């Protein structure tokens, strides 16, 4: 396999991006030859994949990097100053700039670093070979650990001895599986997998937030089935999730997402893993992982057993959509189908129906009832809720006049 020596800037917008070039020019003015793009942007460019973040490595210390940026009129934010990272804000975007480093001490969670000017030394402390490729502003590549070949062949391998690299930061266990789920096209690296399984207890040392973030990235991969099976076989999943795991429901859901061309939804995949959507286990996960309020709300709605399943009565489906919203009903449909509930043969039909559904507006307002002679107060609110429930129950066919007539009849009663 021919290993390229350079990326063609004409084929990669991020290499020609004026904001990125302004940041690089500022750094290079202070240290000629002392700044290169690194990591995901270079790897993805080699693979023809989208580039979302542009990271930069430099020989400049954080203080000198800030001075160079500010001298060029670019805002610099000290996002991780003690660890060598500043963020340049240009073109309304952030560019993470990190000084070349070497590890002085590690404890499995964080590292004490010293700044360096040695590119090979900086590469050797990174996690995987395919993440340790550098490029200058013209696209010329610097590949001290053989990352280009790994990237092009779809191999995810640790730099150096896997056990030593994992013991520096146990999050690398999850990153190993995550990068293979996204970029692996060869069998899972046996040495990396064995070390990850052997050292899995180290995941307990990590903060819940770091584990949760990494798990979501892993489960956002288009098809992580093989990786999850390997993690289960190596007893790694049991160290990540707080309760019983149902890999079969997850595998079924993943297949359905691919079959129905649905996006890879990490939260629904998590729910499927937790005993096929068990509400108590989802609550435990939310507490353990300290998930956001929005994530907790979506997970809770997804595992609510509200009688939603493929092939359900259309009137009941419309009522569920009105009461719960599109996202909750879609998640419940997918999980129910993955559990084998209802008829999977009509799942496509139901998903299409809910995607085209538009929520109707309840035709009665409190002002209408006040104008009809009802008194303001808690009883009025309760009457509104009863009218709305009746309107939903009749499949939204009652109009304003019908509902006001019902209200007057109830008042007379």
Tell me what the structure shows.
There is one protein chain. The protein has helices at residues 13-16, 18-30, 40-47, 62-71, 119-124, 147-153, 162-168, 171-183, 190-198, 208-219, 225-233, 237-240, 247-259, 266-273, 279-289, 293-302, 314-324, 326-338, 347-356, 366-371, 378-393, 400-412, and strands at 35-38, 55-58, 75-80, 85-90, 93-99, 101-106, 111-115, 134-135, 141-142. The chain is an alpha+beta fold and 413 residues long. Strands 3-4-5-2-1-8-9 form a seven-stranded mixed beta sheet. The protein has a two-stranded antiparallel sheet with strand order 6-7. α10 (208-219) packs across α14. The longest helix has 16 residues, at 378-393. The model has no long low-confidence stretch (mean pLDDT 93).
How much beta, percentage-wise? 5-15%
Tally of DSSP helical segments: 22
Overall morphology: elongated
Low-confidence stretches: none
Q: Report the radius of gyration as a whole number of Å.
A: 27 Å
Q: What's the total count of β strands?
A: 9
Structural class: alpha+beta
Distance between the termini: 85 Å
Q: Level of helix content?
A: 40-55%
């Amino acid at each position: 396999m021919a290993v390229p020596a350079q990326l063609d800037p004409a084929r990669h917008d991020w290499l020609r991006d004026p904001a990125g070039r302004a940041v690089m020019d500022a750094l290079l003015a202070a240290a000629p030859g002392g700044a290169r793009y690194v990591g995901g942007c270079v790897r993805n460019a080699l693979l023809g994949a989208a580039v979302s973040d542009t990271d930069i490595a430099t020989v400049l210390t954080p203080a000198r990097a800030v001075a160079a940026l500010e001298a060029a009129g670019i805002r610099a934010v000290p996002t991780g100053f003690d660890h060598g990272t500043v963020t340049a804000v240009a073109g309304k975007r952030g560019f993470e700039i990190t000084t070349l480093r070497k590890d002085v001490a590690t404890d499995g969670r964080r590292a004490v670093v010293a700044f360096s000017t040695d590119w090979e030394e900086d590469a050797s402390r990174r996690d995987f070979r395919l993440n340790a490729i550098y490029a200058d502003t013209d696209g010329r590549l610097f590949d001290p650990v053989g990352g280009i070949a790994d990237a092009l062949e779809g191999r995810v391998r640790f730099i150096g001895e896997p056990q030593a690299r994992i013991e520096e930061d146990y999050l690398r266990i999850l990153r190993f599986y995550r990068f293979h789920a996204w970029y692996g096209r060869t069998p899972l690296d046996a040495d990396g997998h064995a070390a990850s399984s052997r050292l899995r207890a180290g995941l307990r040392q990590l903060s819940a937030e770091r584990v949760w973030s990494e798990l979501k990235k892993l489960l956002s991969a288009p098809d992580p089935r093989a990786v999850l099976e390997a993690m289960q076989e190596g007893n790694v999943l049991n160290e990540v999730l707080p309760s019983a795991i149902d890999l079969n429901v997850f595998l079924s859901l993943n297949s359905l997402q691919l079959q129905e061309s649905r996006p890879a939804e990490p939260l629904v995949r998590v729910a499927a893993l937790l005993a096929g959507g068990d509400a108590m286990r989802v609550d435990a996960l939310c507490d353990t992982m300290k998930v956001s309020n929005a994530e907790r709300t979506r997970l809770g709605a997804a595992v609510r057993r509200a009688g939603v399943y493929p092939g359900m009565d259309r009137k009941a489906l419309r009522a569920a959509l009105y009461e719960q919203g599109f996202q909750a009903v879609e998640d419940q449909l997918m999980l129910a189908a993955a559990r084998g509930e209802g008829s999977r043969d009509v799942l496509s039909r139901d998903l299409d129906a809910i995607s085209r559904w538009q929520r109707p507006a309840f035709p009665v307002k409190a002002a209408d009832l006040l104008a009809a002679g009802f008194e303001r107060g808690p009883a009025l609110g309760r009457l509104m809720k009863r009218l709305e429930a009746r309107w939903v129950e009749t499949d939204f066919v009652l109009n304003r006049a019908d509902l006001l007539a019902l209200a007057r009849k109830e008042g007379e009663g």
